[in-house]
Amino acid sequence: MFWPLLFLLATADQPVFRWGGDAEGGAPFVEADPRDPAKLRGFDVEVAGEIAKGLGKRPEFVQVAFADIDQSVQRGDFEIGMSGVEDTPARRRALAATIPYFEFHEVLTVREADRGRFKSLADLRGHRVGTLGGTIAYEILLAAEKANGVVCISYDDDVHPYSDLREGRLDAVLLDNIIAARSMRRTPGLTTQPVPVAMGHYIGVLATGNTKLRDQIDDILRSRMRDGTLERIYRKWGIWDSYQPAFFAGVLAAQKPREEAPPSTDRKKVILAYVPALLSASVVTIVLSCFAMALAIAVGVLIASGRVYGNALVRGALTTYVEIVRGTPVLLQLFVLYYGLSAVIRLPAFLAALLGLGLNYAAYESEIYRGALESVPRGQLEAARTLGLSELQVLRLVRGPQAFRFALPPMTNDFVALLKDSSLVSVITVVELTKQTQIFAANIGSWVVPGAMCAALYLALSLPLSRLAGVLERRWKAATE
Amino acid sequence: MSDDGTILDISALRLRRGLREVLRGVTMRVRRGELVALMGLSGGGKTTVLRAVAALEPFDGGTIDVGGVVLRAGALPPRSVAKELRKRVGMVFQLHSLFEHLTVLENVTLAPIQVAHVPAAAARARATELLESLGVAHRASALPRELSGGEAQRVAIARAMAMEPPLLLMDEPTASLDPARRGELGETLVELTRGGRTLVVTTHDDDFARAFAQRAVILADGEVVEEGEARAVLTNPRHPATRRLLQG
């Protein structure tokens, strides 16, 4: 009966080994235990547990977004990042990487009906293929975009590519065989092509200088491969397959196959290669922002007019719209528009992004216009009425034009804010400036250059806008003061 | 229009704002071509009478007949009635209320073009004529904020006159003018009545009323307390309220 107490004392005393991963990645990597959501389970959880045990420490999980694992481990949030982290040259350059501990295959998943039609990437010319952004599969698709003319669609998560595939927004998904197998269990009507497109490995990543701990961990992983612990874990989670024995043998036979920091001339080329992609992503950002703002202004004017002139019913309905839209995150609204409504209406991603941002900002614009309409002096309206103008004419010829100059400064603010909020649409697969920068940063393993270039581009878009607004504002002010 | 030449017939007009009775049964008649001074101390209800006649404010009792268009107690009249009323009544506001975003010329041509559908060129020609007759044609391209008080007032008169209403209401036109300018204004108004136009002008200024108005109507506490030929009423006041007005 003292055992639990002793155990507690023992664990409390033990030093902590922090490992980072994304529990949103789900089974079989890391997921909350359905029976006790405070606990985690998954094969990555157990591998991390084995490493901690080997180090004589107590494992502690740190939640981090999948795309941020590299940056987070580098800045010291945890000792090792590992939840389906792929072995890539960029990662090996930027971080201290462990030996690979699992071999996976990039596989192509298609709808049952297309089983005979889309067998490889070469069959998918002109078709949309989805994957998780910033992965090896994404790089393969980008290459295939040039080589085979497939259309690469990047997602922030690995669930929606498969639901979009079922609904016909995509014609194929390229991802790890583990994710594919899991998704086929969740999503009926899909099938995975038996021939893999490519092979890859999962590794753990540590901060650049942390090679001593990395070497210790490598030794622990090797010993767990030898004594069958990893095989037992993989079998438990149903991911042990015919590829693993040969992979284990290869890893154990290899003599420290480390390829550290290649020459930096390479890096310059990589950076230059991304410039056109960043520029075209800026075009997406500016076009999307302009259309969304135009929509926001048009709808905002209608809402504001309805709230100022409408009857109680109209006013109530519009107030409800404004409160709901302003009171919920735009991210949620984008999700609902794109994924939530997909059973009813399947909007293309760009259109959904435009509608989402435009209708969201319309709520804010309408409040600006309502305030502006109400600040036009009553005498102006009465003078117009006594001259015989109808209410619509009063609004169009007197009240509206005068309200516009009150509304202009806050509108400019909103346009600049919208420009930046447009980065949110990457969650519904639109690759705009920020998303492209993330991809860039992930690939070169640093945020410094991509971050600076991205910031410069945003400023190049927003500064002229503020300048233009300033000029207009001064002109109207001069005309009315 | 009634046979006896009455253009404005206000009968037992009552108007309440909250608990306060602003007008308690105002009855007055104005004949075509008259210049009537509507006088009284501040808060007596002068401006409210004009606002009710211009259908800017609903009232609670009585009727207003403007050349056959009848306004009744209750909500503001429907658009069809208001439209007829606007053809008969123009208004010049105390603070002028010129459209701040439009030039002087645009202020004057807005209603002729948009409401009366006069071709733009003709409207501009007519507006220029009006501005000339009022002595402000040289300010045609100025914005309201650039005008002096007297200029703004004459532009406001031109704007109302451009729609050629037979009845023109003017709220405190003398308030923002020095005595010399008041004389000029008075002559302008008399000139307007010569063409058969009717003017109802609220004012505090008894010298102005004596000099230019044919009739004076004195309002006190929401009622007409005295009315008659302007010079007579304002020289030999009978009601205490009129006397107070003359002392002030």
Please name the defining characteristics of this protein.
heterodimer; A: 481 residues; alpha/beta; 6-stranded mixed β-sheet; 3-stranded parallel β-sheet; 13 strands; elongated; B: 248 residues; 4-stranded antiparallel β-sheet; 9 helices; 27% strand; globular
Q: Indicate the structural class of chain B.
A: alpha/beta
Distance between the termini of chain A: 85 Å
The outline of chain B comes out as globular
In angstroms, what separates the terminal alpha carbons of chain B? 38 Å
Low-confidence stretches of chain B: none
The overall pLDDT average of chain A reads 87
What is the number of E strands of chain A? 13
Give the overall shape of chain A, derived from the CA principal axes: elongated
Question: What report would you give on this structure?
Answer:
The complex is a heterodimer of chains A (481) and B (248). Chain A is an alpha/beta fold and 481 residues long. Chain A has helices spanning 3-13, 43-55, 69-74, 89-94, 136-147, 160-167, 177-186, 211-226, 229-236, 244-253, 265-309, 312-327, 330-338, 349-374, 378-386, 391-421, 433-444, 448-480, and strands spanning 16-21, 31-33, 36-41, 58-63, 80-81, 96-97, 102-111, 128-132, 151-155, 172-176, 190-192, 198-202, 205-206. In chain A, the strands form four sheets. In chain A, strands 7, 8, 9, 10, 11 and 12 form a six-stranded mixed β-sheet that branches. Chain A has a three-stranded parallel β-sheet with strand order 4-1-5. In chain A, strands 2-3 form a two-stranded antiparallel ribbon. In chain A, helix 11 runs antiparallel to helix 17 and helix 13 (330-338) crosses helix 14. The longest helix of chain A is centred in the middle third of the chain and has 45 residues, at 265-309. Residues 259-264 of chain A have low confidence and may be disordered. Chain B is 38% helix and 27% strand. A six-stranded mixed β-sheet of chain B has the order 6-7-8-3-9-10, sandwiched between helices. In chain B, strands 2-1-4-5 form a four-stranded antiparallel β-sheet, covered by helices on one side. In chain B, a hairpin with a 2-residue loop joins strand 4 (61-66) and strand 5 (69-72). In chain B, helix 3 packs across helix 4 and helix 3 (104-114) runs parallel beside helix 5. Chain B has helices at residues 46-53, 79-88, 104-114, 120-133, 149-161, 179-194, 206-212, 230-235, 240-247, and strands at residues 6-17, 20-31, 35-39, 61-66, 69-72, 89-92, 167-171, 198-203, 215-220, 223-229. The termini of chain B are far apart. By secondary structure, chain B is α/β, with parallel strands linked by helices. At the A-B interface, helix 15 and helix 16 of A face helix 2, strand 6 and helix 3 of B.
